[in-house]
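ok trying this again, last paste got cut off
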Amino acid sequence: MALEFKFPDIGEGIHEGKLLEWYVKPGDQVKEGDPLMKVETDKVVTDIPIPKTGVIAATYGAVNQIIHVGQIIALIAGAGEPLTDPTAAAPPQAAVAKGKDEPVEETGFGVVGQIEVATTDDYLPATGEGMEETALPATHANGGRIAATPVARRIARELGLDITQIRGTGPGGRIMKEDIQRAHELRGKPPVAPAYTAPKILSTPVKPGERTSVEELSQLRKTVAARMAQSKYTAPHATAFEEVEVSRLVALRNEKKDQFAAQGVKLSYMPFIVKAVAMALAQHKKLNCRLDLENNRVLYHHYVNIGLAVDTPDGLIVPVIRDADRRSIVNLAQTIQDLADRARARKLALDEIREGTFTITNYGAITGTHGVPVINFPEVAILGVGRILKTPVVNAQDEVVVGHVQPLSLSFDHRIVDGGDAARFIKDIMASLADPVGMLMQ
């Protein structure tokens, strides 16, 4: 019997994805591990591999449809197994016997009536019957009581079907007449994957002169919105602002950038900032932890994984530099460039965007000095980096000279990080950025 391959749980709390591309079609010979389809989740664009060698008997879903974890996406027949193509079978006639007249009325969008278990006070609100299907177990409705329309109950009784074994597609898992007819058609046949239904697309044709248009949210944008709201509602934010004179860092970078370029590495200020933050995190465990209030504990990380907020056309993506405190400036420069390029191309793997312990956002790369960055929850702090300003500064001899100033903004979760903790942490970062050679000699 062909394998019913379901959209797998690929971790990180991902529940659904948008189908972007099929790599196979029914009848194709495939090998285990070959790509089956490309999907966009709320975090990455990734390929789903084929789980076994065989022949594609059927695929389910069209490009741009939303598929959920657990939904059947393909039938794969192995050697000697018959192909099962549910679309090849002519749809059987619905054998609905005409029953006795009952006080039932059913329409496409609303149901009224009573039969058997219904009381005179029972009210069935407007339904989506005839609209988009979302299959739910019937037992989910009404705290275990089977919810079904009167017509569905009557048809099930006439066909001798056990209504408790039928999955409902109506609101709240209510069983509709189509569910009964489908169950009757499938009785005694191999299970068939449910048909996919095109998601509703919020779109409004733009007409000349119109002032508003509507665009559906991408998977990534929905996630960004949810995560930002979760962070602001959960973690009481406080933000500390500082400025550090980085003229020696500017000079060092200017001195070394051509040497790095000759090796194919673009040297920006970010590798130095990541290095300074990583070294400070190794010394300030309260900035490198996770608060677990459900179990009344704090989880301190004994590693430093720094996320970098990358601005992409689809929205923010935060790839993670693992063990950032153990890396050289050259390695950090190469890694930052690689992760940023692949983030914008949506080619990051899941492993590259998870298990961050602290995040840096460099809004100064575009413009801006100070900001109030939102913590990448459940981390407890985030550093915002502003644009380096060429500005008058007072040197050790109390002379006003031209210098370079780096603005920093540190947002932290005030439930676990106190103001003193934040001040000591950012002070260490400033010391490293003010004396980059000294930092690298540690």
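PB: full thing came through this time. The radius of gyration is 29 Å.
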